[in-house]
């Protein structure tokens, strides 16, 4: 069966997973626009080890991801840590991890906190399909009241979805709440790899290359045309194509038009600091308006001793192109807001992905494409496996799904 030639566009987790599950059966070539594989799961070197370019962790229910980690002999690297949360309000970090901390939070009434707590407890009971047609704003105001929406959810939606915040579906929001409801005393139970997710990407890449497949980095797909027996990609003919990139961008290259999907970009700044500015908190959402929506204290989650420096992320989302001068805006605001001197910042870098993922607005479910349309297989963030909440688990599921479909269709 090695005479079947498959092109995979994009080397994020979905593309690498598809290649991994097909590697010994077919000739596979992956086209990646960046200089290294991994997509939004790529990593960069720090003083000690690697840290992800975009913050990541996983959950106990991510069975496909955990199975893949074990298959790649990385089980010993897997660890379960606790992630604490809070809000930055009026220049202060307000912890919201434990019940006493939530009770003390001064920006909601006790009754509002009770309604929010009940929503969290019931999160897994809602009918996601019905919530696809309801906006998150309308849903929260109905279930918890306008006070909870304005004080707690509106800043989250604004920072995550910007101009689309009033159109995001309740299905997306409630799924995020449900998956993050595994909270014990001291924080949420979250998974990580001791040497970072660089281990996962490196292992996948090695397996794929060792099987005889090819990965072209610094090589974006530039032109796609239909051939008599398949598709030409960058002038080379393939029997099959697996697309993992934004369907709009894929269509612009010459691929089929499978519908309009509004994607958002992500700008993620990583900094090395001399001191902790989050009072030990892992995830701090910004209630005050800032050029970033959250500050993630990586070394308040992963042990500080592993890096010998405090590492934080500043997370920002945008539509279209990133705002001009975004790196300087984020850095200047962060230094001022958290009273940091220049010599307390050891280093900083920013990573920008213009197509980080689709915005799950109301009615999105009906737009989800099939896994195979007009001879093209689809396994990106827009796929069914990543709805209503995109994740590493969903990316692996999408890659494995199309791999299974191809194996079944071409088994003879």
Description:
The protein is of the alpha+beta class. Among the domains are: 5-79 and 195-260 and 364-409, FAD/NAD(P)-binding domain (3-Layer(bba) Sandwich), CATH 3.50.50; 98-185, Guanine Nucleotide Dissociation Inhibitor, domain 1 (Orthogonal Bundle). The protein has twelve helices and 21 strands. It has helices spanning 13-22, 63-71, 99-104, 110-122, 128-131, 136-143, 146-161, 170-179, 198-210, 247-252, 326-337, 392-409, and strands at residues 5-9, 27-31, 43-45, 50-52, 78-83, 85-89, 92-95, 183-184, 187-193, 214-216, 224-226, 231-233, 236-238, 240-243, 263-273, 283-286, 294-297, 310-318, 345-358, 372-373, 376-378. The strands form five sheets. Strands 7-6-16-17-18-15-19 form a seven-stranded mixed sheet. The chain has a six-stranded mixed sheet with strand order 10-2-1-14-21-20, with helices on one face. It has a three-stranded antiparallel sheet with strand order 5-9-8, with no helix packed on it. The radius of gyration is 22 Å and the shape is globular. 43% of the residues are buried.
């Amino acid at each position: 069966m090695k005479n079947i030639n498959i092109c995979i566009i994009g080397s994020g987790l979905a593309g690498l997973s598809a290649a991994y599950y097909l590697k010994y059966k077919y000739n596979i070539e992956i086209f990646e626009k960046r200089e290294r594989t991994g997509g939004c799961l790529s990593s960069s070197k720090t003083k000690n080890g690697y840290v992800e370019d975009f913050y990541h962790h996983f959950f106990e229910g991510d069975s496909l991801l955990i199975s893949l980690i074990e298959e790649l002999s990385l089980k010993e690297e897997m660890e379960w840590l606790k992630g604490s949360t809070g809000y930055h309000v009026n220049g202060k970090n307000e912890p919201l991890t434990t019940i006493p901390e939530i009770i003390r939070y001064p920006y909601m009434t006790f009754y509002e906190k009770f309604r929010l707590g009940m929503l969290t407890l019931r999160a897994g009971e809602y009918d996601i399909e019905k919530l696809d047609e309801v906006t998150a704003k309308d849903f929260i105001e109905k279930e918890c009241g306008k006070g909870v929406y304005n004080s707690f959810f509106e800043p989250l939606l604004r920072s995550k979805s910007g101009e689309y915040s009033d159109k995001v579906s309740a299905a997306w929001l409630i799924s995020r709440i449900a998956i993050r409801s595994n909270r014990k005393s001291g924080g949420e139970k979250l998974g990580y790899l001791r040497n970072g997710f660089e281990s996962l990407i490196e292992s996948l890449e090695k397996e794929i290359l060792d099987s005889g497949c090819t990965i072209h980095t610094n090589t974006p797909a530039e032109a796609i045309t239909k051939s008599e027996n398949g598709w030409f990609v960058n002038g080379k003919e393939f029997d099959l194509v697996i697309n993992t990139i934004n369907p709009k961008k894929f269509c612009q290259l010459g691929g089929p038009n499978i519908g309009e999907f509004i994607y958002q970009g992500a700008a993620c700044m990583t900094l090395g600091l001399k001191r902790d500015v989050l009072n030990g908190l892992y995830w701090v959402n910004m209630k005050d308006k800032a050029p970033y929506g959250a500050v993630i204290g990586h070394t308040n989650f992963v042990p500080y001793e592993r890096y010998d420096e405090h590492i934080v992320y500043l997370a920002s989302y945008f539509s279209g192109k990133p705002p001009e001068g975004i790196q300087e805006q984020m850095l200047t605001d962060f230094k001022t807001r958290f009273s940091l001197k220049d010599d307390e910042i050891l280093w900083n870098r920013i990573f920008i992905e213009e197509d980080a993922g689709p915005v799950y607005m109301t009615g999105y479910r009906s737009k989800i494409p099939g896994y195979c349309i007009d001879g093209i297989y689809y396994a990106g963030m827009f796929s069914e496996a990543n709805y209503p909440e995109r994740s590493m688990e969903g990316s692996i599921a999408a890659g494995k799904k199309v791999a299974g479909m191809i194996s079944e269709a071409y088994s003879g």
